[in-house]
Give the backbone structure.
Amino acid sequence: MMTSTGSVATSWLRPITAGGVAPFTRAGHLVHPARRLSELVQGRPPGITGHQWSSALREGFDQVVCDPDGRPLLAVRLAPPAAAGSAERRAERITGTVCAAVGLPVLRVESATLRADQARRLVEYVLDARAWAAGTAPEGADAVGFRDIVGRLPDGRRGPVNDLGALARAGAVEAYVERRLADPILRGLHVRWAEGPAEGWAWVEVRPGRCLVERVQLFAQRVSCGVDPGRLAEDLAAVAVGERLRELDVTEPPLVDRAELVAGIRALAARRAEFEGGFAFDHLCAD
């Protein structure tokens, strides 16, 4: 479910009125770009202080998914990771509290590389995945998950066409052929923190023993993504690697020693008790 079915929670949300950038439609939904929380709510719910309310209303979302009548169902935001204890982190917590109180599901992606202009593709992907999972996919195909649908990839091979990182993976192979990378394979992993975000890593070896690494955290607050959040976070990390590879001819991105990367993977594996579903990437812990 993307929104609460309770009449009390639903009453705090109001339809988005005309104005701003025109919405687009996807899978039976209206999607409005660049809206502030103040445009989505009406009245302050019980339990929310005046300070929390005024602070949260100033916060914005990159995309807001609505029903055909314009009532918000899901808010999406891409942002760089905020430092612990920072004003940005406090604002995120307050906004999350207010959104929970008004019954607004939120999908937040933290990435040092991905930007707001990529939020539309994420929304389209999630809505399509949810529609597939809900059974609106072609008859007889419901046994295959949305992420596992096989078709023609950008490089001509057959593979999972709903891998958001497919273009980045093809780009890595092309860059390797052009001798701009030391290895053609874009690797990755993902975990789901218990009662926390999904986290995805992706990396490619740019120079021998030196890797370009991207990490993404995905916070799905009261919303289903239609696919496993961990795999989605990993695919988004692959997209981020692809964005950095585009700039490879202009400037070399910060690289990480492979030994340091492996040490980080081992440290992650050591915390497997904190993950939902454990840790499935022990094979990456080898030197």
